[in-house]
Amino acid sequence: MAHEETVYEALDHASGGEGHWAFGTGFDEPLAGVDTTVPDGVDPVDLGTYCLMLGDDALVLAQRLTQWVTAAPELEEEVAIANVALDLLGQARLLLARAGSVGVLGRSRSRATASIPDEDALAYFREPDEFRSTALVAAPNGDFARTMARLLVAATIRLAVFARLRESRDSVLAAIAAKGVNELTYHRDHAGRWLLRLGDGTAESHRRAQDGVDTVWPLLADVFTPTDVETRLTAAGVAVDPATVRAEVQAVLGEVLGRATLRLPDWPADTAPRGRAGEHGPELGDLLADLQGLARQHPAATW
Length: 303
What we know:
mainly alpha; Aromatic_CoA_ox/epox; Phenylacetate-CoA oxygenase subunit PaaC
């Protein structure tokens, strides 16, 4: 009887039979074929830090969304949420790989993680204070209405940034943004449709949707405040100053909430971007314990 190749054997054979780290997100080089040269006049440390900001936001929000798998209100919605999380995970992988390619890891590599791809080392072996994600993506999910309100806000902001990043002088960021725009458009529209459904539904769904919006809005306090890194890279034609997308984001969110018969909360006063500086509440540590636990127990594991 002919031997039937298992899925694990197929994965191993496809990559030369050398074995791979069990927690990786793929076997191919994520930046293969893209010019990874750092643009003239750009500090590689700034570029790497900016990629961490964008990549960490995607990674943390993807992990939050996966917490809904097997718990969403509809089977079809579980598939949709999982697909959104996978899109964000793909963006995170590319951005963390870019951060690694410009030397962000530096001396933080340990002997146990020396052979692990940059994007995986950055995802699984950094401490919470090394993450550059915002409170918006790190906050607990709450109920389904709050999750959709947060996804709508996060996707709207990220889409506005990525649409502009397509013109970045950094070829990698431009390529990631060009691919991500279509994904983020779907994320925003999917969450928007749910808020319309919930806000203009029953009295209970309306109440929950409004509570979700009211809970998410204070998390916007620091998302439009640029860091020094963003300011320098924006001047160099590489990054996007988050303050420049404020008007667009406010207009989109105001229109969606109005159609959903939801009250638009007051916009919070700008504060320093604490998450970008590595200052986080305990919720991020709890999330990372789930995300990183298995990899840390078996740092050199292979297929």
